[in-house]
Write a structure and sequence with these properties.
Blueprint: E1 21-25, H1 28-38, E2 42-46, E3 52-53, E4 61-62, E5 68-69, E6 72-73, H2 78-88, E7 95-96, H3 102-115, H4 132-139, H5 147-174, H6 189-207, E8 212-222, E9 229-236, E10 239-240, H7 246-258, E11 261-273, H8 281-292, H9 296-308, E12 310-312, E13 315-317, H10 332-345, H11 379-382, H12 388-404, E14 409-420, E15 423-434, H13 438-441, E16 483-484, E17 487-490, E18 501-513, H14 522-532, H15 540-549, E19 553-556, E20 559-562, H16 564-576, H17 578-581, H18 583-597, H19 603-623, E21 628-633, E22 640-646, E23 649-654, E24 663-665, E25 668-673, E26 680-685, E27 691-695, E28 703-705, E29 718-725
Parallel strand pairs: 1-2, 1-7, 15-17
Antiparallel strand pairs: 3-6, 4-5, 8-9, 8-18, 9-10, 9-15, 11-14, 11-18, 12-13, 14-15, 16-17, 18-29, 19-20, 21-22, 22-23, 23-24, 25-26, 26-27, 27-28
Length: 737
Amino acid sequence: MQQRGKKMRFPTVASKRKPKTPIIVESPTKTRTLKRFLGDEYDVLATKGHVRDLPEKDFAVDLERGFRPTYEVIPARRRDLAVLAKHVAGADRVYLACDPDREGEAIAWHVAEVLGIEPDRRARIEFNEITERAVRAALAAPRPIDLNLVNAQQARRVLDRIVGYQLSPLLQQRLGGWGAGSRSLSAGRVQSAALRIVVERERERVAFVPQEYWRIRAVLRPVDREENFQAEVVRRDGEKLQLRNQTEADEALAELRQASYVVADVTRREVSERPQPPFRTSTLQRAASARLGFPAAKTMAVAQQLYEGVDLPEGTVGLITYMRTDSTRISAEARAAATKFIEANYGQEYVGPGARGKAAKGSQDAHEAIRPTDVSRTPDALGPYLTPDQQKLYRLIWQRFVASQMAPAVYDQTTVDISAGRYGLRTTARILRFPGWRAVYGAGEADDEAAEPGAGENGGAGNGSEPAEGIDGPAAPGEQKGKRNGEAVADRLPQLSPGEPLVLVDLLASQHFTQPPPRFTQGTLVAELERYGIGRPSTYAPILETLRQRRYVRSVGRYLVPTSLGIAVYDFLMEHFPHVMDLQFTARMEEQLDAVERGESDWVKVLEEFYEQFARWLQEAQTAEPKVIEGQTCPECGGRLVERFSRFGRFAACEKYPACKYTRDVGWAIAERCPECGQVLQVVLTRQGRLVVKCTAPECGYLRDSETHGEEAGGEESVQGGVQAAPKCEECGADLV
């Protein structure tokens, strides 16, 4: 690898005694943790983060000479590097113990470059956890710096610099009028793809048309016992029941009041529910978002503290393994320790085979899952020594790891099918027989990611396993507890037998409306990026933070909502740089960077192939004339209408501007027709920054605000109109027929 950037010159310090062996890490906290068990033989020093980078105010990439970057020492790190040079001078060995990933390898390489340490020298050590066993094993097996890892990180850095520096000025020029806030306008290779996901979800929500439907439940009891229970009407004439309005519901209610109810079938079976695998970066961020309300950046910051070390009575101790990983595997030692802990605290029958999740797209599986370094350090025992946020996150990680090594929870499930003339009803009850891993979580706790709309860990349930929800306490007579796959689930049912007649106590009808897809939270957006193979464990949190800092998205509660600025940027990039916005293209670039890391591709050739296309797209966008809107003319002067962009997104303007100042909104056409005039509807961005549905006919004033769909329901159905009971006789209380 060619040297890029100048070495700093530091004074040589003579010493009469043999110097300690330096170990260089990034964090001062990590130095305290290592010093606790390494003793006086080693001199543990910290770089305090990156030491060199591309300069902020210069492009610093030579496109004509193999994309050679010119690095400079970060001014704030000059004094720290001088200290490092003083300690390294005269040392027989130097160990570079930066984090075990691309970024850590790059930091190690930059330190070696600045201090004059040859990259092929066996100076690089890495460990997945900061424990004496892991660190001493790493010291026994040093290796040269892995230039494939360095090149992969360098390629990503140069790639992002090219896109950011060459695309952002064009964005600034075309979306003018931003005033003092214009400095925040930027485009990025990965952030733009993430922005597309958020904006297009918002478009789906705005274009969504709620559909009315009704559900009917019957309150029943055995003939000889006052044991009420509920069953849902699910079939009519053998087909799935679909009630689209109140008229259809009333017709069904009238028939059901006249029907005779008989138990058709009773099915009893054992259902097991397997635990989720240990966390990887994306699932930790998702679970922390769902259960703790932590943004991704906060999750990673707190996890970094737990990894690097927390002050305990015995000294500074690293409590979890490395938190940037795409793997769910654990070491044999960790498995053995978990088994021993579970046997001692719960019993042999609680030990399970160990849960393993489905590999994420683009997974490298280079490191273990995120787990406690010592499972015997329980969250409660560590409580006095952790901050509230540290304890919350540690508890999440500890519970997930211990549960992942435990036996499945086992339920006795009873399903009762009931016939009522041409209607079929069903009810299900589940009783927890053996808690298994739920002994750690509690029987009523949902899975870590279950609180995130649309989220769920791959491989969590497994073959023959089903999630148990709503098993959190007794129901009142006739009341249901929770749902399973949209079906009502009770915690108990009376003893019933096939052929047994039942008494109808009441009929309950409720009106519902289908809901639009939920907005993304930070956790579910990370899951979506991972699903497409966009980003890697070290980049998820920075991607989200960039969108926030650039004011492309804002938070409404836990949900991410695109701003008018974000939508305008999306509009422009989709028009002129569709490949940059293409999710598959972005994912393929990630795969190419992974190939560089594995030594299968040359990083310069990867950049050459990208830049050949990108330069052409950039040139076309810079010289493109405004697109003429075919078949439409200016209603004020008869000139052609052309498509332009502003901070309010796309709009149509007269080609004779500034002589003619006519403009109108241009949005995205949707399949729905205007309920007032029958013309095509479109989604447009208003000057107030809201997406609305508007009729394309100029003479029609139909407008539907995106907020008419109501508040976020987290994927739950909307219920309106409450419950309709069968009409009763005022004298005796019986159903009127």
